Structures are given as structure tokens and as C-alpha cells.
Amino acid sequence: MSDRLPPLTALRAFDAAARHMSFAKAAEELHVTPAALSFQIKSLEEHLGQPLFRRLNRAVELTEAGRILAPGAAEGFTTLQTAWAATRRFQRIGTLTLTAGPALTAKWLAPRLFEFARLHPDIELRLSASLKVIDLRRDDVDAAIRFGISDDADLASYAARPDWVTPIMTPELHERFQTPESLRDAPLIFDDSLFKVAPGCDWPSWFRAVGMSYSPATGTHFSQPDHAIDAACAGLGVALGRRPLIIKDVSEGRLVAPFKVAVQTEARFRFICLPEAKDRPQIAAFREWFFAEIEKTAHMWDDFEIIPEKELGRP
What's the pTM value of the predicted model, to 2 decimals? Predict the structure, then answer.
């Protein structure tokens, strides 16, 4: 038996068949005929000098040799795919593929992207609005904007300003509810996503921040923050809005944030990318623009009292 590696096509055929435990499904994945795939695996077995599969009546199963080879073959092809994807991204000097959450995309990014395009007409931005967990080394993504407590080990991570929440409502609704105490009688809106990323920033915490002991039990619940904000814009009730997600509606008068008290969370937005990619021109350009845009509106909240949620405790 030779120590020389067998042909890559034969190993790829084996890897697909071992994953699917089916020659037919493996052939379909590789866009070859089952006969061609079977030939590749047979040539691999001849190269090795022993069978890798037991051919049963309507199925196949791995032999002991096949079970030994399968994990290494899978890992090898994953490594190759990762390296190939990274090499392709390196070539795309004029393209930036970015992912950000749907709420940030709709409420903050999309209304501002014309400015980035004006400043960088040579960069083609491809934006995916998704909360999917990504692997920047494997997935076809250059950078991501994520919200939460940092868990960005082995990545280049740049944190934005601390985030916070404050009550928001339409100007018409504010005419009826002009004090924090009056919110006891207001229709409240709950953004349930806050419990996942910022559990200390809820209605009871905000009421404690203004000196009230009140835990509202009823209201309208939404699973996404932009939906809760849209409901507030429609006059459904009073919502707790996060700073970057409410700024456009507040600045354009659809909403007001009248009470000037906010609860700050330890969670925040971060711009993340691979360490070796942080200085690529298109990534550096977007990162610098992103943080500059945040600073443009930071003054809007200068008269707010911002109270860290960890100082409020629990009831």
C-alpha cells in the first residue's frame, strides 16, 4: 500500500458518501452519476487495499477503516473550503459583505447607507439582515454587527457606545401620559427580545430608576424590537426603546422620549471581523463610517440621566 495520497476526487466522493450513507445522495450532491461515484470509491479502496463500505441490499455502512477515515476526510474538506472562501474574499477588494440584525438594519443602517455609498462609491456593499450565528472563517461574510455581551474570542471586535432604554410614545399619547406615574394607566408595549440580550433593561427596572416600585403585568408583547417600535409609532402604546433603534423616529417627530431617564445595559453593538482582515480597505472604511455615524447623534441625549441597570438591583 502506497503512502501517497489518493486522488482528491476519490476522497471527495468518499466524504460525501460517508456523510449521506448513500451513494445515490452523494452522487446527487456532487453532480455525478451513481456509477461514477461508485467507481471513485472503488478506486479509493483499491488504493488503500481494503474496503471502506459494506454494500448492503439497499444501503451502505462504513467498515472500521471507513470509520477511521471519515472524520479526517470531513475535517480536511472543511479546512479546504474555509481556506478557499477566505482567499476569494481577499480578492474582492471592492466588495464588502456585512451582516447585521434586522432591527438595526431597518431602523438605523438602511436610512444612512446612502451616505456611505456617497463617500465610498467604489465599494459594493452586500448587506444581510440576519441574526444567524456566523463563522467568519467559514461563511461568505466579511464583517458583522452584533448586539449583546461580548463573546468575540479570536476576533477583532470594536464596541460601540453603551446602549440603554427609555419610554417612547407618540406625541398624541404623551398628551395623556405626561409623568412616569401616569404610565401605570398607560397601554404598555413589551420587547421580549430584551430578556435575551439585556435582561436588566425592562419595565420594572425603568420604574425603579424613577423611584417607583411597579411591575406591569399586562401589555402587548413583540419578539422583535423594531416591531415594538413600529407599534409605538402607530399609537398602540408606550414602549421601551433602545437608543439607536429609536433615533430616527424621535428626530423626525413620530415618537417622543419625554422622561429623560434611561436604563443602561451592559450589552452593546460590536463591529466584528477577522483579525487578519481588519485593515482591508473596505472593512476599515465601513468600520470608521459606522462609528462616526454613531457620534453624529450622540449629543441628542446629553440631557438624559443614564442609570446602569446593575445599580438598580432587583425588587
Answer: 0.70
